[in-house]
Amino acid sequence: MNRLYERCHTALLRAYPASMRSRFETGMRYAFSQDLDHARARGAAAVLRFCVTTMFTTLWFAMGARASRAHGNATNSGDPGMRRFITIDWRDAVRSLRATPLVTTVAVLSLALGIGANTALFSILNSLTLKSLPVRDPQQLALLKGGWTNPVWEQIRARDRDLAAGAFAWSSEEFDLSSGGQRDVIDGMWASGRMFDVLGVRAILGRTLSESDDVRGGGKDGPVAVISYGFWQRRYGGEASALGKTITIQRVPITIVGITGPDFFGPIVGRTFDIAIPIGVEPLMRGAESWLDGRSTWWLDIMIRLRPGQTPLQASEALRGWQPAIRQATMPDFRPQDQADYLQDPLTFESAASGRSWLRTRYERPLKTILIVVGLVLLIACANIANLLLARAVARRHELSVRLALGASRFRLARQLFAESVLLSSLGAVCGLLFARWGSRLLVRQLATPDNAVYLDLSLDWRVLGFTIAVAGVTAILFGLAPAFGISGVAPHEAIKEQSRGVVSDRRLGLRNGLVVLQIALSLTLVVAAGLFARTFLSLNGRSGGFDRDRVLIVNVDVQQSAAGPKERLDLYERLAESAAAVPGAAHAAVSFTSPLAGSGWNTDVVVPDNSTLEGRKRWTWVNAVSPGWFATYGVGLASGRDFDRRDRPGAPLVAVVNRTFAQRFLGEGDPIGREFSTQEPRTTIRYVVVGLVEDAVYRSLRSEMTPTMYIPFAQWDQPSPIVSIGVRAERGAPTNLVRDVADALGRTDPKAVFSFRSLSDQVAGTLAQERLGANLSTFFGALALLLAALGLYGVTSYGINRRRAEIGIRMALGAKGSDVVRLVLGRVALLVAMGIAAGAAMSLWASQFVEALLYGLEPRDPSTFIAAALVLAAVGLLAGGFPAWRATRIDPSTVLREG
Amino acid sequence: MPLLMPTNREPDVSAPLKPAVFYILLALAEGPTHGYAAMQAVREQSSGRVPIGTASFYRHLDRLIEDGLVVEAARPADDDPRRGAYYRLTARGLRALAAERTRLARMVAAIDALKPARRGPA
């Protein structure tokens, strides 16, 4: 790596005037390598900082030295070349950019879009993966891999000061503030007593939680909570009197004792919290159903702060010493064979400087893919601007050659053109930053689904600014070099022999053609990507899933605040479902543990014969508890047998309805009705009789294959949870029309129950958020790339025709017909487009391997997508080239011949 | 503003030297040395307040050579050739440094001439 940096530096030294280089090069190289060694001793960041600043200053001073020598009189050191470089060139650059407002506007706009899109995505990736948590010394934080039960946490808490500098546990949960009716949800967090202390987060008002607050049933101050700055502003208008107020959550009054600062959003990146409550308060809310002693309830995340100098590996090793004791003391209700795994599964810490995030695992890869896409768009925009500037430089040949004839150096002219490029890209970067601020917020809103509110800290930091500046600098070099090279062919005498007539060919057109081929190739890649993502989304969205998504309203019911205890819940649910079914306009209503694609799941293993080939996950089945009429409500077809009915009560024989995949996998050939099977529960097996067979329907993901699913009667569910969903099928029209009536009916049945409403189609759309986002973004940028490529092709074609005006005029005077002219022009366009498509197809074939994981239902090298994309580009090429060709046929030979 | 004065005149006492230039002259005043050692001396003697980099160091050196304050010096026989050339002060360079010393001394004297109460916080 050192060698690489040194080589870069040596290459940059060439920018110095020869006299200075020969004198100082050895010393400069020596000084660079010495300083580089010093920087290496201070770490990678220091090396990077050193290299970037040195490269920049080297270039800067070299240009200054050149400028002062170019202005003659190098001996007169009173003439600072740097300053002249800055003042004079910028003024000229501004002047010439203002002279061609259309070109400037198009260039700045396409740059703003390109740079802005890159910055927007980068700022999201930055806050998702690069930024550290806004706490004290985030690099000292380490996360215990996995999710944990409270007994495990209590074991670790007892040892936290021996293990590391401190440990804490937390869990996110939505809390409902309403006392019945529509839900009023806030983002809650269960926090262990030392969380704020270990993170090093202070309250801006009041105090944070302490260990004495985190005892079962609440500490000496009773149940207390810390609220976030955002919640404080929203609910309490930022009034200091919020301290000491109580907030009632699930019938427990909780006292607000502190408010955290505006930049703290909790240990999870991608979310924020409204209220943090000590874990010890949990039994007050959940009563007998408390999770604190649940040995199989994996709800907590555990993080530690390492001691100075301690690595996550060392902490893991320290923990392994206690592992047998911890595991023994917290054994979950597992089957014996799984218990052995539990004892051995090693406890491991991993670095957690940037916090923990489900958003990161889910979106990091798609976002990086899109970052590449927008990078390509920016490249195309650069090629386009290079073309525009090149055309302008050539149009200014006369001016430039006059300047040359008057004694300006070529370096000075090139610098002049380059200054324009820098100015353009700076303008683009400034507009791009504004665009990015808006675009990144919009994007983050798209990442959110109804279940997962997304909060990301998108404030500008040095990384985002540095990224934008670097992108702007690279773009300036990319499109600035072309015109600067372009003038190398300008000769001083050209000013005199203007307006020559003849067959022209020059290498600037060669460069321009090359840029157009590059643009077309890149656009093809993007159009292919757009096609693949759009088809993925469409085929997922078009997948029926086995249920009727347009007719069903889903009501998520939470009865934790209801007077009905766990024993009376079954009865309450049935009454709620009946009252919903009685609403005018409702065809059916049924209650179930979960609804399709709701995100929650219940699975179990099916007992298979000893000689079965089914291993591990193949024995899995999803389970749902459903009330009579559920299949009709959701439109899941009953293939044979019967639906559940009033006979299937507690005490009656346990029955089940299974789907086709279940029947094929576990019940073999023949009619499954009347057959029996067992499921493997922690300590026992349960035997069911199959009474019905239904068609396959997806359970949790539209992407997965159909999975075995068994349905049990809701009434035979032994542990009905306090949160269930009621499906209401509308007789006709949109199911959301029923919301008001259903809410009234349910509220009358139990005023303490809490509801939220969503149509099944919204729920399905929510699970496709990622695919929809990918399809929308890639289509947008694909279209943008096409537009830019079309502009580029149009520009280069009409420029070519202008140059060949005289030639075309003469040809027509000699008898060439319009069709001949069109053929002449379009032949060239076709060649460019064909070359671009060939190059683009090769590039797409290579790049397609990286998107395979994001696709559904088609191959990454799907031939029809490739062919369609090529056809689209050919059509666009024909349009972009055809218009100038048609104009060429209007050239009047007599006018041309009279000219010049 | 000129960095240094044109070559045909003697140093002007009223024009202060830039800090970097001053420290470079100071470093070379101790005897002939190669470029990087002079750079390091500048950093050390200014206690890091003049964080000079390679490019700016050689820009100043270029000017100093052109103004005749510094010249290349003979390299010691056993020296590592990768270090590049050695430099030393000319008589003019020594005079420039002396002039800067005089200038600074006058300024210090001017401040000392103030009544003690007006020199600012002690």
Describe this protein with a few key phrases:
heterodimer, A: alpha+beta, 10-stranded mixed β-sheet, 22 strands, 52% helix, B: 122 residues, mainly alpha, Arc Repressor Mutant, subunit A, 4 helices, 3 strands, disordered N terminus
Q: Can you walk through the features of this model?
A:
The complex is a heterodimer of chains A (900) and B (122). By secondary structure, chain A is of the alpha+beta class. Chain A folds into 4 domains: 34-131 and 360-504, no CATH class; 138-353, no CATH class; 508-543 and 770-899, no CATH class; 560-752, no CATH class. Chain A has 27 helices and 22 strands. In chain A, strands 1, 2, 4, 5, 6, 7, 8, 9, 10 and 11 form a 10-stranded mixed β-sheet that branches. In chain A, strands 14-15-20-17-19-18 form a 6-stranded mixed beta barrel. With 122 residues, chain B is mainly alpha-helical. Chain B has one domain (19-112): Arc Repressor Mutant, subunit A, CATH 1.10.10. In chain B, 47% of the residues lie in helices and 8% in strands. Chain B is built from 4 helices and 3 strands, in the order αβααββα. In chain B, strands 1-3-2 form a 3-stranded antiparallel β-sheet. Residues 1-9 of chain B have low confidence and may be disordered. The A-B interface holds A 20, 23-32, 34-35, 53-54, 57-58, 60-62, 64-65, 74-78, 80 and B 2-4, 6-7, 34-36, 39, 53-59, 61-63, 65-67, 81-85.
